[in-house]
Amino acid sequence: xxxxxxxxxxxxxxxxxxxxxxxxxxxxxxxxxxxxxxxxxxxxxxxxxxxxxxxxxxxxxxxxxxxxxxxxxxxxxxxxxxxxxxxxxxxxxxxxxxxxxxxxxxxxxxxxxxxxxxxxxxxxxxxxxxxxxxxxxxxxxxxxxxxxxxxxxxxxxxxxxxxxxxxxxxxxxxxxxxxxxxxxxxxxxxxxxxxxxxxxxxxxxxxxxxxxxxxxxxxxxxxxxxxxxxxxxxxxxxxxxxxxxxxxxxxxxxxxxxxxxxxxxxxxxxxxxxxxxxxxxxxxxxxxxxxxxxxxxxxxxxxxxxxxxxx
Length: 311
Fold this sequence. Notes:
By secondary structure, the chain is α/β, with parallel strands linked by helices.
């Protein structure tokens, strides 16, 4: 029997920060409007970096040992904004960092794609002789938004996050790992992106979806695991909008302290938001061995997924 363990997390952000006051002037908004509506104080825009460069830089911060490099059997990248279908981002990272020949996959599963990528990595590692894997979430959203569209311009940000995981052989105390991932076909036109166009988001409909389907998904997950939220230390959710995360917490009847947030300083980075949150939590010492956490992804597709796992 085996399990998947998070070894390290890495991140990369472009140097250029866009603060609220700059956008509020451009969009002719009153001071404080953006933070009040979204919780966000600043976001990042890539100027010279490609999406592939950002992914590679995030993986570099994992500080891989020679052993890590030799034992990596899978690189899987979740994105919504890639500008090149082949070679994929994962292949680029493999070549750029001189990693061993391995399985390289890029997946498209909307903003919650990192959850799908994480679960695919778990399945591959359980069924194959793969000791270590790298899971990447990366998006360069500044290139695919209408800078005059209030609904997206004030929220979306560029960034990359990477997670190094390894397979653990379990002899006595198996760690919990349960996933609940599904796609909703209804109203899948409320959050879309077509290559060469801009991201489209129906804010009101996205809000309704996000605060209902996520709660349903987590409740199903807890029922499958036969545990209560009392036993879970943190929900690490896709950092979509602070109002949405507060509404999810309220509907789950939990304090906001259990719903980790870093959107205030990072913005909404789509597929990168969960691994970036894991990095920030790890760096701040929030995650301890034995902690049970829920990773929660949701967004375009409509794709909703949660993973209950033990650190």
